[in-house]
Amino acid sequence: xxxxxxxxxxxxxxxxxxxxxPADLEHYGRDWTRRWTPAPLAIALPASVEEVQAVxxxxxxHTVAVVPSGGRTGLSGGAxxxxxxxxxxxxxxxxxxDFNAVDRTLTVQAGMPLEAVHNAxxxxxxxxxxxxxxxxxxxxxxxxxxNAGGIRVIRYGNTREWxxxxxxxxxxxxxxxxxxxxxxxxxxxxxxxxxxxxxxTLGIVVEATLKLTDPPPATNVMLLALPSFExxxxxxxxxxxxxxxxxxxxxxxxxxHHVTAHGAHYPFAETYPYYVVTEYAAADEAGEAAAxxxxxxxxxxxxxxxxxxxxxQAQAQQLxxxxxxxxxxxxxxRPYKNDVSVRISAMPAFLAEAQAxxxxxxxxxxxxxxxxxxxxxxxxxxxxPEDTSDAEFLGQCEQVTKLLAQVLRxxxxxxxxxxxxxxxxxxxxATLSSVQVxxxxxxxxxxxxxxxxxxxxxxxxxxxAAG
Length: 467
Fold this sequence. Notes:
The protein is of the alpha+beta class. The chain has helices at residues 5-12, 22-28, 49-61, 114-122, 140-146, 153-156, 191-195, 232-242, 253-261, 285-301, 313-324, 326-330, 347-361, 390-411, 425-431, 434-438, 446-451, 457-466, and strands at residues 17-19, 42-45, 66-69, 86-89, 96-100, 105-109, 163-169, 175-178, 204-211, 219-226, 245-252, 274-281, 306-309, 336-341, 366-372, 377-383, 414-415. It is globular and about 70 Å long.
């Protein structure tokens, strides 16, 4: 142990697993993008709620910033520890604790991977419907901390809609329980909702009671090629009017270029500017007929240029890989990433203006867009040019964030969870009012909250200035 404070941590929490090996510090101290250089103090891996409490109390006493760590599948620095923070990984707290058949709920520890949650629900003939490409690596606690949406948000909504109760360790080490699985709770403020999406700044989720539902009907997958992003709204309306959509995702030709180079199969003879992959209910002939009717209508209108319907589960997975494999295919470029949530109807205007601003400032950038039409969540990826140094690219990315903030201010929008950390700060501080920044003052653990450093530091500074 190189830092004597760690001896006091082990004294305060005997049996705590603590890692200080350089390889572990690097592994746990950064996210998938590998853009930032990790420099954590140590990695704490508690195995119980009591150990989480002990670690947080110790950190509070010694004024050590804590970075909660789930699967570290984020792409904007939320799990990055770059300034001597203590990384608190919940990966050892990964079990299902209780299933209630009457309430149709599953209580799990926060470190449980999303895919394991899916499997646990499936053992009881039910589903936890929130889903995204990183399902095998991301943790349910991280999903809750970011109010993650994903590929099926159009059908099931965000994580928030599926949380019946939470147990959270606050900044002073106190264990708080919110809602206790109630469907209706009129006893006062629903602080559960405040914690969902708070990204660890108000407390660390240690357990969650999740709502479950019936499995969806049989589905099919269709890939559509579009001439422009503007017509995507008409295509979306045509399909939504005729059938039950399970997913409706878009991506650009640049995304296809990279994901196919990474091994994904491309089914068309030509390339097109924009693409949609949609999954829809197809339990009977009527469902398939509705899908074909929507497709033919869009072709007649010139909104769709080509399309393919999956003929098997294997082909459906191939089509989905074109969308779900994008992030992995871009990883080697260590891209700048940012996410924004836009009103669905405003997506074309936002993308066009943002792309024009970036092209004007940095015409040499390779920009890749994809996202979820169901909730208006756009993912922007700017790839680092080979002839640009890391330092130069980082400075350029800061300017891109400011450009996006200009569009956000004009459109009255806010950044989304994937951009919620190191890359979101400029945009977030530009779009939050002083009242919005002041709101955390009323939380019971505000003094502990103020001590947290890490990804949301500029917001903390705004809070202190306002208070």
